[in-house]
Design brief:
This protein is mainly α. Helices cover 70% and strands 0% of the residues. The protein has helices at residues 15-20, 22-42, 59-65, 68-99, 106-118, 121-131, 138-144, 161-186, 190-198, 203-214, 216-231, 235-240, 252-262, 266-296. Helix 2 (22-42) packs across helix 14. The model has no long low-confidence stretch (mean pLDDT 86).
Length: 297
């Protein structure tokens, strides 16, 4: 008489995999969730050099948004983020469409465009600091050649320094956007292109009204990756400008670091980091809900 094997209870399915995932789950719960909760709670205290349990309500946040340096950091982040998103998406998509034409030496060009992303932001910042240095970089070269732009001093001008950071950030990050867009383009069925050619639809209209809507998931994923990196930008600013001249190129992440580790003002730093955390949630939550609805459908 053959015995029927009992199916394991749901909790014990894939038990080995669940046991192996315990360290990761503990790390996520204790470090990420626990530290996040600690950050939010102590942002409502008057903690200075050491954590304090003296509750002060929203006083740290009121002081934060009344600080000129923090407001400058927010404006800089908006300028840097807006320009980085627009140009990285436009340039990355254009490069992806060019590489998608099955050109010769495609792998070489793809490697060249993606190579800056393999560098750290520290290296990128130092490289562009040298390039934009008026005494030995591009401005000096233009001046020696008698070309316009010899008096270019992006890093030394408080009104233009943020645009120098945008240039450096685009140089490093556009390659990643290009690769993601190229992967999305390669996922488009060739029959769609053939049908568009048969119907006489111009290539630009095919991209605009057919291909781009079909790549919505790729665009959303790329937006989340790029935007979350923009909110956390820190090392590029430190390497290129140290937040200067003055506080002209200050960003929120650098403000948090300086307040917590240089000025010993934990409460103010935690309030600023909580604002950054909320900003990241504003970016991630809609994306997560969209992905969940798509999978559910």
């Amino acid at each position: 008489m053959s015995s029927v094997a009992r199916r394991p209870f749901g909790l014990f399915k894939n038990l080995n995999a669940k046991i192996a995932a315990i360290p990761m789950m503990l790390t996520a719960v204790v470090i990420f969730i626990g530290c996040t909760a600690w950050t939010v709670v102590y942002s409502f205290t008057n903690s200075k050099l050491l954590p304090s349990e003296h509750f002060v309500g929203f006083a740290q946040y009121v002081r934060l948004f009344n600080t000129t340096r923090w407001n400058t950091a927010i404006i800089n982040l908006m300028i840097y983020g807006g320009l980085s998103l627009v140009f990285s998406f436009v340039v990355g998509f254009v490069l992806a469409t060019l590489l998608d034409q099955k050109i010769r030496f495609e792998n070489t060009f793809r490697t060249i465009f993606l190579y800056p992303f393999a560098l750290s932001f520290i290296v990128t910042g130092l490289v562009w600091q040298w390039i934009l240095d008026p005494t030995l970089g591009l401005p000096k070269f233009l001046d020696d050649m008698g070309l316009p732009g010899g008096n270019l001093a992006l890093l030394g001008n408080k009104h233009t320094v943020i645009y120098a950071l945008v240039i450096a950030g685009l140089w490093q990050g556009t390659g990643l956007v290009m690769v993601l867009m190229l992967a999305g383009l390669r996922g488009i069925d060739n029959e769609i292109w053939k049908a568009a050619r048969v119907d006489g639809i111009p290539a630009w209209r095919t991209y605009l009204f057919i291909v781009i809507p079909m790549m919505r998931g790729v665009f959303v994923t790329t937006l989340v990756i790029v935007a979350s990196g923009i909110v956390r930008v820190y090392d590029l600013v430190v390497a290129m400008t140290q937040g200067g001249p003055g506080f002209a190129s200050e960003v929120p992440a650098k403000y948090v670091y300086d307040l917590m580790f240089q000025r010993g003002n934990i409460g103010q730093g935690l309030a600023a980091s909580t604002v950054m955390l909320v900003t990241v949630f504003i970016i991630l939550v809609p994306w997560a809900l969209m992905e969940f609805r798509q999978k559910k459908q």
